[in-house]
User: Fold this.
Amino acid sequence: MSQVVLETHNLLKRYGGITPTNDVSIKVEKGARHALIGPNGAGKTTLVNLLTGVVEPTSGRISLDGQDITQLAPHQRVRRGIVRTFQINQLWNELTPLQSLALTVSAQLGISHTWWKPLGSDPRVAERCAVLLKQFRLDDVMDQKVSVLAYGKRRLLEIATAIASEPRVLLLDEPVAGVPEGERQEIFDTINALPPEVTILLIEHDMDLVFNFARTVTVLVNGTLFAEGDVASISTDPRVKAVYLGEGHG
Ligand SMILES: Nc1ncnc2c1ncn2[C@@H]1O[C@H](COP(=O)(O)OP(=O)(O)OP(=O)(O)O)[C@@H](O)[C@H]1O
Assistant:
């Protein structure tokens, strides 16, 4: 039987007269490849901010493994395993991919106070970094500064960093936004190869990625749950098509 990991219960967020999240109840199952889509202003970012704890709901609840986490601060949710990537680059430009990953891996192993020691000084860090660098196709650029990396590689490093912290639930926020056409496939492939045990909620505009990646799709429109189902039903739903065609998403 499927197991629900992350769930929202009648979640509602109101800013004055605007309700970007309006009575939204969704269930994200263990190991899910679940996409959250919707036209501009649908409330996707607000929902992610509610899930990560950056924004407090006006009403409603959020639960992780059946436990209410609505009142937990963002860092407490990270500790429980809800990790997100960002639409906007959050990397350290002066570090290399290897150094960036070593920081996160060291923290994960509880040895962050020694992160500045030569990498080889703890073989567990070096080993884990080597696996991540290969998995995320960063081994050829591992010693270059982040500031000189191609945009697609930076996005891969963001996802690698999130995975390095061993999330239970990964919120992938528009991983191909702004990535040039020629670099997208590499990101598609890498995301498709993420470990099956990690539960993934993907927030994305790119329908190619959504329909290749997801098994379940939730469509938000004007803050409200508009449609939900498997990829086949959502991709052929005339109401969903109409919403996207109206926004010029084709
Ligand atoms: N802090 C805020 N104060 C007032 N209104 C807000 C706030 N945050 C979001 N909104 C409004 O809520 C609505 C939903 O915004 P949100 O950014 O969540 O949508 P989105 O689906 O992520 O859009 P996009 O695809 O353009 O990123 C918008 O009308 C937005 O202006």
